[in-house]
Structure formats: C-alpha cells, structure tokens
Amino acid sequence: MINKHIIFTLIVLMGLVGYTQDLNKKSYSLDECIAIALENNLDLKSADLRANSAKVNHQQSKANFLPSINGNFNLGVNDGRSIDPFTNDFINQELTFSNMGLSLDMTIFNGFRLLNTAKQNRLNRKASELEKEAAQQDLILNVTLTYLQVLNSKAVLDLTKQRYQTTKEQLKIQKDFYENESGNPADYADILGQIASDETSVLNSESSLNNARLALVRLMNIPDNVNIDAKSILLDFEKYNLSAIEVYNEALQNLATFKAREMRIEAAKKGVNVAKSQFTPEVSVFGGVNTNYSSAAQLFNSTGTSIVETGDFVTVGTQDIPVMTEQTNFEAETIGYKDQLDNNLNTVVGIAVSVPLFNGFRAKNNVALEKIRVEESILELERTHLDIKNAISQVHFDMEAVYNRYQSLLRQVEAYEESYRINEIRFNNGVSNFLNYVTSKNNLDNAKVNLTNAKYEYLLRVKVLDYYRGGVN
C-alpha cells in the first residue's frame, strides 16, 4: 500500500514538472527556427568573420598599388657637446633642435607581385563567401533535419501515450473482473506488467523528444530553458523520382562547396605567380622634402666700421707706432623658427632598383611550396567530389529502402489493426486469453511506431538529397 502511495506521488510530481515546462514552451515554425539559427549560430558567425577577413585582405592588396607617403616631425633639447645642425660645427652648449620631413615611396614594377597578390586575394575572398554560403546551407539542412526529428519524436510519443491510455482502459476492465473474482487473476497481473512496460515506453519517448529539442536549441543558440515545441508541417510523402547520378549532377552545378574548392585552386595558382616574382628585379621611385631648425643658428648683421689696432707696429726713430686697421662690426641676430624651415628646405627624388642575386634558394623553394599547395587544393576538390558522390549514393539507396519498408509497414499496420480488433473483442468476452490480446496489441503498437519512424526517415533522406541539389525546400 505504501508503494502505491509513493508511485502516485511521483506521478503527480512528474505531472507538475511537465506542466511547468509547458508554461515555458514556445512553438516555432520551421522557417522561424531557420531564421533564428542563421542569426545566432556560432559556427555561421565564425564563417562570416573569415569572409570579412578575406574581404579586408583583398582591399589591402588593392591599396598596395598606392604610394606610401609618410611625414615626420621631432623637437628636442640637447645639452653638451653636439653638432650644430645649422653649421655642422661642434658646439658645447644647450641646443634646441627640430626636424621635419615628408617622404614618398612607390613600387613601379616587382614582377607583377602586387597584381597577382590582388588577384589571389580576390579569389580567396570569393572562396570565403562561397564557404559562408555553404555553411548557411549546412545549417539550414541541420535545422531542418533536427526539426523533423522533433516532429518524429513527438509523433512516437503520441503513439506511446495512446498505447498507455489503451492499456489503462483495459486495466479498468480487468480490475473489475479481478475484484468480482470472475476473471483470470493471471490476466490482471499480466496487464499490470504491461502498464509498467508502457510507462517505460512513454518515458523513453519523452527523453528522445527532449534530446531532439535540445539539439535544435543548440543549433539556434538560444537559452536552454526555452522549451522548443515544433509546429506540425504538411509533409508530402511521394516517391522520389530522381536517380543518384541526377542528384549528383545537380550538386555539381549548385552546391557552393564545389565552387569554393574551385576558387581555392585558382587562388593557389596565383600564389605560384606571386612566388615567381621573387626572381625579378624591383623598381621603385622615391622622393622627400626635409628641413630643420637649430636654436644655435644666428645671423650676423653689419653695424658699421671701427679703427682697431692690429697688434703690429712700425718703429719711427725710437718710437713704436701701432698699425691700425678698419674692421666691420657685426651684431648677432637669432634666426626665427619659420625662417629656418624656409631657408633649410631641401628635396630629394630618385629611382631605386633592387636585383635579387642570391637569397639561399628562398625564392625557388617558395615557388615549390606554392605548387604543392596547388596540388593539395586539387586533391581537396577531388576528395570533395568523391565524398559527396558516395554520400548521395548511400542516402539515395537508404531512401529507396526506407520507402519500400514504409509500404510494407502500411500493409502490416492494416493487418495488425484487424488482428487487434478481433483479439480485443474475444479477450473482453473471455473467449481468448491475455497473452493473445497483448501480443496482438504490441504488434499493432510497434508497427505504428515503426511506420512513423520509416515515414520520417524517408523524409529526412529526401531533405538531404534536396540539399545536395542546391537547397532545402
């Protein structure tokens, strides 16, 4: 008796938990799930960042054709022995100095390295954009398949609940027989065991549904406490008419993965041309404008003349007469900052040629490495062709097998429904035993579950084939 109370309490608590979860449950259509996943999925965001990086690299490679222009300015104080930048004389005093300049450098020719690098980055950019598109296609497919898995799990759960409800109704009938001592006690005990088995099936189905919902939540990158409830969608169950080779031929034309691989090959070939440019001379032009300032710079202005002794003398008789001379007198004047910048202005312009003579075979080895990258890119494309062709063949074979299994299960369900109808009537009237009844019931319930699973397995494979053809409808 105590065990019954415990079981009843657990069932009530489970019901309360399920009710609370239902309050947090939100229904999403397939299109809504796809839209949210495209907005939030982390893998897709990473692909978008890689595409943006490739875009920036391409823009920079085009900007490399422009000249490099740099300006410089400095201002400082030097104390002690130094060179006066105005006179180039050694001085020993505190000196304030300043320099400024503008330089230009531009590559004229370097074996078309800039041009081929820009082309390579353009191809890499297109490849990254196609890879982003492929990531979007993969995400849409995964969301669609997971959404269908949620629907499948819901359908199976509904069937297991129906099975459980049918068994409970039968339990009421057998309980009356058991209490009135008019039935077989073993039948009542057997149906109690069947109740426990059906309860387990319901719990397992609920677990499968929860796992499918969590997988969908992860793809959509939304909080785990949001309980996804997929809306039923109209699903057409028609025989797939395209062959595996027809699907593969459409994939070659429409799938972004192939186009991205082809772009990577072309980009790798441009990399070979970039590496070969290391064998050619590089020609560039340069120019510059410079000026400077020094606090020691002075301008000496004439202020007139004066008669001064030279230090020499002439003797006239016994008297020494000093020799006099006329000298020009000067007054020092500090040269202003702006005047010095104008006076000291100088320009330079020229052309530079760099000829590679020997660099430890670096250029040769770089070319060899780039050629290997081309071969690797070709192998990746071939591997992609092979993997997708094999995948299409396998999915197409499984789809046809599931379709045939579905047709067989339809006939099986129809037969088991009739068998169950007869055995239920016989069992309720006491003509048949519980073993025949429960065997017939389990056969029907299992056939319905298998039929539902086969239906969704077929639809899942159809969606995969549609994806390979270039999109999921």
Descriptors for this entry?
alpha+beta, four-stranded antiparallel β-sheet, disordered N terminus, 10 strands, 21% strand
Description:
It contains ten helices and ten strands. The protein has helices spanning 2-24, 30-40, 42-63, 113-179, 185-220, 244-254, 256-276, 337-343, 362-428, 434-468, and strands at residues 25-28, 68-78, 81-83, 90-92, 95-109, 227-230, 282-294, 298-316, 319-334, 346-354. A four-stranded antiparallel sheet has the order 2-5-7-10, covered by helices on one side. It has a two-stranded parallel sheet with strand order 1-6. 26% of the residues are buried. The model is unreliable at 1-23 (pLDDT under 50). Helix content is 63%, strand content 21%. The chain is an alpha+beta fold.
Shape: elongated
* Count of distinct strands: 10
Structural class: alpha+beta
Q: Give the mean pLDDT.
A: 84
Helix content: 55-70%
Cα(first) to Cα(last) distance is 56 Å
List the topology elements.
Layout: H1 2-24, E1 25-28, H2 30-40, H3 42-63, E2 68-78, E3 81-83, E4 90-92, E5 95-109, H4 113-179, H5 185-220, E6 227-230, H6 244-254, H7 256-276, E7 282-294, E8 298-316, E9 319-334, H8 337-343, E10 346-354, H9 362-428, H10 434-468
Parallel strand pairs: 1-6
Antiparallel strand pairs: 2-5, 3-4, 5-7, 7-10, 8-9
What's a quick, concise take on this entry?
With 473 residues, the chain is of the alpha+beta class. The chain has helices at residues 2-24, 30-40, 42-63, 113-179, 185-220, 244-254, 256-276, 337-343, 362-428, 434-468; strands at 25-28, 68-78, 81-83, 90-92, 95-109, 227-230, 282-294, 298-316, 319-334, 346-354.
